[in-house]
Amino acid sequence: MNELVKDKKVLITGASSGIGKYLAIHVAREGGIPILVARSADRLAIIKEKIEAVFSVPCYWYKADLSNDAEWKDVIDQICYDHGSIDGLINNAGMAVFDLVSEAKWQDIDRMLSINVKSLFRTTHQLLPHFLQQGRGHIVNIASQAGKIATPKSSVYAATKHAVIGFTNGLRMEVESQGVYVTSVNLGPVRTNFFNQADPTGAYEKAVDRFMLDPNKVAAEVVGHLFTQQREINMPGWMNSGSKMYSLAPAFLEKAMERQFNKK
């Protein structure tokens, strides 16, 4: 059991499946208290029941549509009222629709901006005063390697993750001297239902299948760094090395990797 996580209340968005579900399990395994948020009340109720039965720790859940700012603000207020202090926040909720900008539907663009960026800003903005007042806390933002290297058909998604990384880096410098840790998690493709919506054809998922990360391993890595001064978590490592090369020679990489970049 990780003493840094034990008895800590950790709010996890997008917690009904994929990485979010495993984050909840690993927080509970380390003795922490997961507070789960997602749209699917049925799934959250099942996760709560299993976590409490297996790990003997309290687990709480709240239904919310994070694309609805007014609704999400009210739910955050309710969480703060119910629990008093929150120790950690993992902004995990996110979605994508891969499409050429010229062919994209505005509602898809708007929803990506609302969930990936605005709701993350909203949650952080409302909880940050609590962390600063406590003089402690940890904010973990699930970003993406797409936030470092944009590719065709992911222009909007990449832009949202660029925003998350920029926000995370700036916020870190604002609050690090006040006891609040801020970490970005930059992931390559993860084997979850994320791609059911991002690319319903299944072509991209099939093309990158052998590179896909295990969501359980991702969650274990993230929880293993909770309440530590970890600036970034990058998975897989080789993809992060590619992003560093891209920052040095973008035109060369775009030409050399043109075929791979156009697999969506």
UniProtKB/TrEMBL annotation:
Keyword list, A-Z: Oxidoreductase
UniProt protein name: Short-chain dehydrogenase
Family statement drawn from the similarity comment of this UniProt entry: Belongs to the short-chain dehydrogenases/reductases (SDR) family.
Coiled-coil blocks: none
Gene Ontology cellular component terms for the protein in this record: membrane
PROSITE patterns: ADH_SHORT
Domain of life according to the entry: Bacteria
SUPFAM superfamilies xrefs: NAD(P)-binding Rossmann-fold domains
InterPro entries membership: NAD(P)-bd_dom_sf, Sc_DH/Rdtase_CS, SDR_fam
An annotated Gene Ontology molecular function: oxidoreductase activity
One family name in Pfam for this protein: adh_short
Family annotation (PANTHER family): DEHYDROGENASE/REDUCTASE SDR FAMILY MEMBER 7B (PTHR44196), DEHYDROGENASE_REDUCTASE SDR FAMILY MEMBER 7B (PTHR44196:SF1)
